[in-house]
Amino acid sequence: MAADARPPAVAGQFYASDGGALARQVEGCFTDARGPGGLPPRRRSADRRLVAAVVPHAGLRYSGAIAAHIYARVAAERPPEAVLVLGVDHHGAGRGAALSARPWLTPLGPTPVDLGLVRALTDGPVVVDERAQAREHSIEVQLPFLEYVLPKPRFVPLQVRFGPLAYLREVAAVVRKATEGWDVLFLASTDFSHYVPVEEARRLDRLAIDAILARDAARLYDVVDRERISMCGIAPTTVLLAALAGRQLEARLRRWGHSGEVEPMEEVVGYAAIELSEPGGSAAPA
Question: What does pTM read for this prediction?
């Protein structure tokens, strides 16, 4: 792999640092009681109805089983030509909407970036900024799943910093225009409530989830602000909803869960797996 590949930033922290151990850890997310209940199917549908999804990004021990509900669906359908992963800016290191144009490494190997889509997305507020991506985990933790369920994944990482709704709509307009004519799977990486009692997380997260299920970017942005929901990925999720506005899609909550399901804790972090699909049913079991 080229020397300019992005090295993993959170291997050994958010997921296993050894390739074999990581593959087993990903498989454990699928077979976990909170997950889909089994490994992904070996045979794929010739069609793909899944257009977009919301997935969590905590350590695989905590949120991987929730994310696996979406990746089981990805594994069951025709692979997309590219995956656009919209991530969080947890570190404030970049310039707002930041792309990466180099391959990304995990212990499972390299994942190439679709440079054609990167070029199409480099417009207006969206720029290539490798420094912004260097330490961010919200996109990186999706790669072990993508590498496991797709034969030769090509992806584009787009990290979005929180900002005014008008700014996020501007980023979404770039995404919408750039992806026209592309066979792209869109993923928004976010956790929901952070470090609140379980029932509070359940109540607050449901408000945000209902806005996502309604596919209403402004409603999501407003309710997260008004209720002070500590949803770290409000920016990428708002961009996702705004970019897909107008498309005929069905939204479905696959699974909501929290970190307290893994080990006892008084305050938890909430996770959700939400899919947006073309009408006609789903290819993977709930």
Answer: 0.94
